[in-house]
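User: Hey, quick favor. My workstation is busy. Could you predict this chain's structure for me?
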Amino acid sequence: MTPHRALIVLALLTACSTVHAQKDVSKVNGSVEVAAGEHAGSASTVNGSVRLGDGASVSSATTVNGSIKAGNSVTINEDATTVNGGVHFGTRATINGDITTVNGDVYLPDGGSVKGDITTVNGGIGLVRAQVGKDISTVSGDITVGIGSHVAGKLWVKKSKGGWNGLPLQITRIPTIIIGPNAVVQGGMVFEHQVKLYVHTSARTGPIEGATVIAFSTPIAPVNK
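Assistant: No problem, here it is.
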């Protein structure tokens, strides 16, 4: 075999190995899992959860009726998306796209980073020492931008887009928004309906529209007082 032909064969074998390593993992009914340290293409299901082990890497994580549960040091190269379920990460997660859910909570703890938006409708959003590259938004969920977290865009609590008759849906609860110690919301905050807004004295935000700040200096916001 000539050296030139040997290089071609080696390149083809490498390409095949790469394709195999990034094979999609998908189902319609049932949970899907990418084990610790493994690499895959999209991890998706319709009726079930998506589970990613420590150090796993996928192109995207998607379900409709189920949660997305990820371990530590997970990488998602595009989006993490569900409709009816939560999206929970371990520490040091990297999401290079958006995190989106309708009915479920989003939790991104220590060292987590999402380059895009975090969006819910009825679910809460919790950040602890995490970085968000764009906006975070909800309609009726609570939001905690916890200690040491940084949101480069806006925090936005939106009005409902309305029901079948086009009229805004009634908000049945008042969301609680907490900006914790040394947290930053660089793009400011916009509130299109009533909220309870607690901002730590060490936190920094851009302009605030639609709510009155309740300042606090204790480690935990006095929500129940």
